[in-house]
Amino acid sequence: MDFTFSEEQEQVRDMVRRFCATEMAPLVFEAEETETFPREMFRKWGELGLLGVRYPADDGGSGMDKVSDCIIREEMSYVSQAFSSSWSAHSHLGIWPIWRAGTDDQKERFFKPALAGEKIAAFGLSEPDVGSNIRALKTRAEKVEGGWRINGAKMYITNSPIADFMLLAARTDPEISPKSISLFIVELPNDGFQINSLKKEGIRASETGLIYIEDAFVPDDCLLGAETGTYPIILESLTENRVGVAANSLGIARAAMDASISYARERAIGSRKVGDFQAIQHKIADMAAEIEAAKWLVYYGAWRVDNDTLDQATASKVKLIASETALRATEQAIRIHGGAGIMREYPVGRFHRDALVYVIGEGTSEVQRNLIARSLELSS
Ligand SMILES: Cc1cc2nc3c(=O)[nH]c(=O)nc-3n(C[C@H](O)[C@H](O)[C@H](O)COP(=O)(O)OP(=O)(O)OC[C@H]3O[C@@H](n4cnc5c(N)ncnc54)[C@H](O)[C@@H]3O)c2cc1C
After folding, report:
1. Strand ranges for the chain from DSSP E
2. Listed range (81-85, 170-174, 211-215, 326-330) with the worst mean pLDDT
3. Which tens digit of pLDDT belongs to each residue from 264-288?
4. For a substitution probing ligand 1, which of 156, 241, 366 has the most ligand atoms within 8 Å of its CB?
5. pTM, 2 dp
6. What superfamily does domain 232-375 belong to in CATH?
7. Pick from 134, 209, 330, 365: most CB atoms within 10 A?
8. What is the pLDDT of the chain when averaged over all its residues?
9. Opening angle at CA 45, ends 40 and 49, nearest 5
């Protein structure tokens, strides 16, 4: 076993760390306070090749492995989980199915401009009445002349208030089966789409929408892949992305630990530094140990992706452990900061609110446990 990152992977980390510190970090506070994502960031990511990390160079991507993808996510989330979520919803969930199943025309019109950051993508799967149980989604697409008429609603869709197009999952047949779910590429704005921005506790700088869809028309050439065959692609992209968001969680956990160490070293109570107290040292020691464990589980998951051996249960284990580790670490960081931990001028409150997002989004911890339990064949 070799746990060292390659020279190329270390270079990627250095490059992204520099970019995040100089280009992203100065924008984070204002974006969080105004709950507005700075759109120009997509172009900057595009120029640097950060929107095409997982796509081959022949298709215009940067052709990086999953380990590098996780390094990038870790570094981005260290600075802002909100920015990183917008990036992930665009560059992974929002365009990956087009790369996998799109026609040449769809790739030209949507995938390529998205890689350059000229168009922003969103991925619309979750619904108000159907959260965790995606197979039961209700949004309906009916065949009409020249295209499809869509009715329904989508909930908590990242980037939707700023998106130029959205991948939309809809039922093309009332029967509840994987074959009856298809993906459509919907150009925005669309007369039948009403997108309402949601106010959030976590990842405030990432814009999220609740969407009502009434008699929206989508032309035939915007149906993705064969009409009955896109559900496996949705599952594939969700499984790989669970390892990705675990890397995001790792980034926030590290940020919380580093902030705690700095604070514990600097904050004096009378003649003693907070870091002199053994109770505080133990909290930080626990963080360090748990983060180390989560780190190697994340990169093991990434290695499994790179070796084409990732299974659903492993992806769930990786996400469960990393996201819950981040939640614990960020809560401890607030305690270590005392009252300052509650103040917005310190980042640890934001870290904790942001860490909550990934014990819920991309499948809750309970759903991950269900998937792990299913793999253990506990039920008769
Ligand atoms: C900030 C944010 C951004 C998001 N971005 C997107 C996006 O871009 N695109 C998208 O499609 N979705 C997105 N989501 C939706 C996200 O994937 C869902 O919130 C998540 O799948 C949970 O669904 P729900 O919120 O409806 O919860 P529910 O399914 O209503 O769950 C409520 C509770 O019940 C539990 N529960 C549900 N089913 C079971 C079960 N079978 N066994 C045990 N417990 C269960 C859950 O774990 C949870 O604790 C986003 C969510 C958030 C918060």
Report:
1. 121-124, 140-144, 147-158, 165-171, 181-187, 193-197, 208-219, 223-224, 268-269, 272-273
2. 170-174
3. 999 999 999 999 999 999 999 999 9
4. 156
5. 0.96
6. Butyryl-CoA Dehydrogenase, subunit A, domain 3 (1.20.140.10)
7. 330
8. 95
9. 150
Of 3.40.1390.10, 3.40.50.720, 3.30.465.10, 2.40.110.10, the CATH number of 121-229 is 2.40.110.10
Query: Residue 159 — left, alpha, or beta (φ > 0 → left; ψ -120 to 50 → alpha)?
Result: left
Q: Which carries the bigger pLDDT value, residue 257 or residue 130?
A: 257
CA gap 379, 324 in Å, rounded: 26
The whole-number pLDDT of residue 267 equals: 97
Strands annotated E in 5-138: 121-124
Which pLDDT belongs to residue 229? 66
Q: Which residues are catalytic?
A: 362
Q: Report the atom number in ligand 1 closest to the C-alpha of 363.
A: 21
What is the pLDDT at residue 98? 94
Q: Is 365 exposed, middle or buried (0-12, 13-18, 19+ CB in 10 A)?
A: middle
DSSP 310: -
Residue with tokens 């510190």: 21
Per-residue confidence (pLDDT) for residue 131, from 0 to 100 = 72
Distance from chain centroid for Cα 370: 21
Q: How far apart are CA 304 and CA 285, in angstroms?
A: 29
Question: Domain coordinates of the chain in residue numbers?
Answer: 7-115, 121-229, 232-375
pLDDT tens-digit map of 121-174? 999 999 999 876 778 899 999 999 999 999 999 999 999 999 999 999 999 988
| CB within 8 Å of 150: residues ≥ 6 apart | 139, 140, 141, 142, 168, 170, 184, 186, 192, 213, 215, 216, 217, 218
Beta carbon of 151 within 6 Å of any ligand 1 atom: no
DSSP for 188-215?
Answer: SS-TTEEEEE---SSSTTS-EEEEEEEE
Please provide residue 49's backbone torsions phi and psi, each rounded to the nearest 5 degrees.
Answer: 80, 15
Distance between CA 49 and CA 161 in Å, rounded? 24
262 lines ligand 1 (CB under 6 A): no
pLDDT above 90: residue 368: yes
* Residue 96 clears pLDDT 60, i.e. is over it: yes
Q: Give the Cα separation of 30 and 227 in Å (integer).
A: 43
